[in-house]
Amino acid sequence: MNDTPVAVPTTLVEITLDGEAVRVPKGSTILDACRREGIDTPTLCWAENLTPVNVCRVCVVEVEGSRVLVPSCSRPVEDGMVIATDSERVRTSRRMVYELLASSVEMDRADREVHEWMEHYGARPERMGKRSEIATVAQPVKVQDDLYVRDYERCILCYKCVEACGDDAQQTFAIATAGRGFDAHISTEHDVTLPDSACVYCGNCIGVCPTGALSFRTEHDMRLAGTWDEDIQEVTTTVCSFCGVGCNLELHTQDDRIVKVTSPSDHSVTHGHLCIKGRFGWQQHAHS
Amino acid sequence: MPDLYFGAVDEATDAEKAAVDEAIADWGPVTIRVSERLVHGGRARMRERRHLLLPALHALQRAAGWISPGGLDHACRVLEVPPAEAYGVATFYHLFTHEPPAADDTVHVCDDIACRLVGAVDLIDDLRTGGHHVKASPCLGQCERAPAVMVQRRGRPDLTVTATDGGTVGVTEVAVVIDSGVSTPSVTVPQTGDPGLRLLARVGVVDPTSLEDYRASGGYRALEASVALGGDRVIAEVTASGLSGRGGAAFPTGIKWRGVADQEGRPRHLVCNADESEPGTFKDRVVMEGDPFSLVEAMTVAGLAIGAEQGWLYIRGEYPVAIQRLSGAISAARDAGLLGDDVAGSGQRFDISLRSGAGAYICGEETALFNSIEGFRGEPRNKPPFPTTHGLFGEPTAINNVETLVNVLSIVLTGSAAYAAEGTERSPGTKLFCLSGRVNRPGTYEVEFGATLGDMIDLAGGLLDGSRLRVVLLGGAAGSFVGPDSLDLPLTLEATREAGVSLGSGVIMVFDESDDMVDTVRRIAEFFRDESCGQCVPCRVGTVRQEEVLVRLGRGAALDDERDLLDDLAAVMKDASICGLGQTASGAVRSALDMGLLADIAEGNGGGGQ
Known about the structure:
The complex is a heterodimer. Chain A has eight helices and twelve strands. Chain A is an alpha+beta fold. Chain A folds into two domains: about 140 residues, Ubiquitin-like (UB roll) (Roll), CATH 3.10.20.740; about 140 residues, Alpha-Beta Plaits (2-Layer Sandwich). Chain A is globular. Chain B is α/β, with parallel strands linked by helices. Chain B has 27 helices and 13 strands. A five-stranded mixed β-sheet of chain B has the order 10-9-13-11-12, sandwiched between helices. A four-stranded mixed β-sheet of chain B has the order 2-1-3-4, covered by helices on one side. A four-stranded parallel β-sheet of chain B has the order 7-6-5-8, with helices on both faces. In chain B, strand 9 and strand 10 form a beta hairpin. In chain B, helix 1 packs antiparallel against helix 4, helix 11 packs parallel to helix 15 and helix 14 crosses helix 15. In chain B, about 60% of the residues are buried. At the A-B interface, helix 2 and strand 7 of A face helix 6, helix 22, helix 23 and helix 24 of B.
């Protein structure tokens, strides 16, 4: 995570990407290559500050010689690889992944790109059946403390929060995937409440959640009150003053109050991850 | 030690602590080896102890009848595993429970495709009425003597109850077995005594608990021969024999072994995949119950050949008799110097660790099996990289099915040429088939490759009186349906591939005109929904949606309205799932659709189910 490239990689491999011969650095993933060549590719479980888990399958591409589609986020390029990113098979699978997710999960607070991609691929989740007659992950929202809200009705099981809590960032391991199949869900041990768990309230899980399943209590309360309005929020970048590490903070403010704190995932110090003080210490500010 | 937080309110009981400590105590020698490595590896130790999580969970479940929060915390403390992760692992398996037990004995009744043909659903009702704590189970691998029952017990060994001699299983039979504490005896195979048998020759003939008996009937001569030959020549013989994997994928065994053996300088592993869970499959169980030493010997031959010091035998938890016999065989072999630091005078070290699964079909997928042994959730990994270079613990691993391994004994003993003289040119040797359903003598049969589907049904005594063949499920739930027009199909790798079907794990399940195929197909869809690990979207949600479509069809929905959705579900599961489970989850359903088996629904004949 902390190594800085010291030299331009010299080994290049040649691949064919949507009919064009291109040369990309050895060790790149197919997704890296696509982004380099300006080929937009949807992702859900991938994030630049996390190890790819390739579980959502929305980034799949067709690789010549492979019986099945391959996840572009984790598959390294190989010399001579012939890749199609917009074939009929790719479009069908991507559309279906969105339809399967949106038919079982509440997606209204998902990142804007998710909705754009769904429109792009013509996803029609409603054809899976009436919401009341098919299996969904609908469940009551978990509000157990003053800092976090966990609304697993919005969880697509992308594993990002588990990774951020575990060995990709925080090393706390307070949450993991439990259960199996459609019943698989993110849980503390024995489903104890967050305050009773190993959680240290760094908020890094919220920072990586792509669908609004994890959110700040402030956001949750303001949404309930009907006052949450991202369009009028301002984002101010500053440096956290709680210690000497120098983490970048992005303060999201609405009506001159801090309502949310994030950190840029490409920042060399934080990689998007903060601690409880940087993430929530502003509450002191609000009170003063 | 990582900075872990333990929050359980209740302490583990003394019984739970003792059970966990005992379960992991056996791992003495390797722990020492591991702690030496700790000097270099640092955090490696946490990971190295973590593989004891599954045995520890079994110990807790056995001791207390559930995985209590205090018990789980204790296991996590001694193994240095975060409790949330351990809880995630424990809740992955159906044989582990997370509420205080309702009863000392839990009666698991198979209501899968073969057992439900012969009254499994009624049996569940009867047992519940009789006061038993009952759970419906996916295939228990006893289809030749259906309906099958497994009793999971607190503080005592699990038991198997099955039908014998054409009888049936009722409340009385279950009670008798529970009272006596003895499983229904293993059956001999229908062909017992046939001189043509290779893999089943000793089943029902020798005492499966006696090493002396095994040796007296030719056992351990293959190990002797392979020590004399040396690893390279053993691999060369296996390659020349043309032996291919019998787990379903038919990968050439010799090539797999060569790949691992070539990874010199890295610790290598041999894993036997005995997690036989494909509905309709019971061949490996028959070998393991009837001739357990042959598997131990075959694993030893394989382990020495590829240069592995550690073998892992991963067997499904629903096979209590096989687990007991294999544990006995491994101990006896160890005592006789046939496992250990100097195997049979070879100067090589090889030992076998037996790990039992806990109710998860997905753990039969090779990379899910590795994760399960390592103490993680049984979620498959992406391939590549392949096990040959990145297998168990990320190290080079040869993983073979039980039937594949026992084939090696005759290859080593008689030579590759004699072995390849049987069967067909592209499918050499013999093959085990699991005959079940509406045939007179269901059971495991061994034949030379080349026998047709019709030959196999004849061998099993043909269809029951008054039955007319409607359809055969070939290859298991992950296989496909074929009709009477396929009776002449030779059951070889090449002929089935050409016909667009698969031998899979050797399942031949026969259905007649009276069977409710709509219910059968729906049960297959339910099986995949229940057994999906939940990791990737296409399989986690796709298997649910597929089952919902079949339920809707059963209630009279028009097939034409659902066809596009079924097509798309099949496409995304097949193309975009991580592993073979999702990729094959639509196979049988599609073939049923193609054969018109689901047309019944439209005519209002079907619609069974729960």
